[in-house]
Amino acid sequence: RRDSAAMPLGDIIDIPAEKIRLAKDIAKLEGEAGGIEKKLANAEFVAKAPDEVVEENRDRLVTLRARRDRLAEALKRLG
């Protein structure tokens, strides 16, 4: 078993700047997800759009939410 030396995170990255970047990225993802949610909540869009397009939007929404959740968790870890 090897012991590894730990370096304080603050010595590697600018924590306040990283918090700002993560918050901006989260806001951007939430905006994109909100637009897709509106589309998918529109019964006319869902009825008229090809199934592939609706499914693509649903998949994109899942991806955006997952990315947002990962970034939110990273922001939480930074304090």
List the topology elements:
Blueprint: H1 15-41, H2 43-48, H3 51-78
Number of strands: 0
In terms of structural class, how would the helical and strand content be classed?
A: mainly alpha
Straight-line N-to-C gap:
31 Å
Number of helices: 3
Percent of residues in beta strands? Answer: under 5%
Shape field: elongated
Low-confidence stretches: none
Mean pLDDT: 91
Largest pleated sheet: none
Radius of gyration: 18 Å
The share of residues in helices is over 70%
Following the backbone from N to C, one meets helices and strands in this order, namely: HHH
Q: How does this model look, in words?
A:
The structure is a single chain. With about 80 residues, the chain is mostly helical. The chain contains three helices and no strands. It has helices spanning about 15-40, 45-50, 50-79. Helix 1 runs antiparallel to helix 3. The radius of gyration is 18 Å and the shape is elongated. About 5% of the residues are buried.
